[in-house]
Amino acid sequence: MNNRRVLIGMSGGIDSTAACLMLQEQGYEVVGVTMRVFDLPSQLNEEGIPYFIHEAQEVAQRLGIEHHVADEREGFRNKIVQYFIDEYMQGRTPNPCVMCNPLFKFRVLTEWADRLDCTYIATGHYVQTICEKGHHYIITGDDPQKDQSYFLWGLSQEVLTRCIFPLGNWKKNEVRQYLTDKGFTLKAKEGESMEVCFIEGDYRDFLHEYCPQIDTLVGEGKFVDNAGRPLGIHKGYPYYTIGQRKGLGIALGKPAYVLKLNPDKNTVMLGDSQELITHYMLIEQLKVVDPVHFTLEKGLSVRIRYRSRSVPCNIVRKVEDGRILVRFHEEVSSVTPGQSAVFYIENKLVGGAFIASQRGIGQWID
Q: What is the pTM of this model?
């Protein structure tokens, strides 16, 4: 392999364009690949091709780099979209980007890099990497508003050894200025991309469109209080998520929040905000970079959603069914099954897991 040849995922947007320029300045031979994964009607031109493919091709031509298009629509729909639907049908709240990165995006990049004789792969993610004692770690990006480490905890060591993240020590406003200085003035002024690339609008509309049998399979159910007493009728548990307050379609005379979902009974438990607060959670499928470092090092913290800050914590124990009990060192609200729990020591990502069902958690708390 050419050890200065790098394959970069190109969306045609601000970040990947800036990353391409930076890699070229660092002396790499850059090759671009744009993934076509899900066609949104608003993104298609008159020829039925997503506009971002043409934008990526134009950037590649301007920079004089090789460019390819990877049509991965079928695989994406079978793996990521189906996962998204299945999780909601199980009463969980998925984060598709967390699954997409290791199982899809970086897998496709690695396969294409091998095919195109590229030693490295690169993206426009706002993260950094370091190697310590033979282990590769993701480091949070310098821009706290753009740090994307939360989405990347599932990447394997094999993949991380090949990754380059040029934007990790840049802030977004600096990237925009960099593009302006390089003559990409219009590109620098573009807006942000969507967080979930295959959904426009409300996820509930998406569920209804791509799982039209949902109302037959689930249908209406009961809102209940924490004692199981009925409060009213809901549209079906997949349409709700832990901590939700707006759009419940029920008036109780005071603010109500979703506390729990029970797919078996098709019930949605409501209560007040204080009932969402906890010092504990159960996780599953824990993956750590270095087991020794993870268990012995002090200063562990965890993020339970993308926009949340890290909260100091410690691993308590593995319970009988294999779930792992985590204790927060301060109050946390709205622990949501299906979301990711991503563990850090300072700014270093040391592990990740999925938030499990919290059923029965009380019996494990001393």
A: 0.94
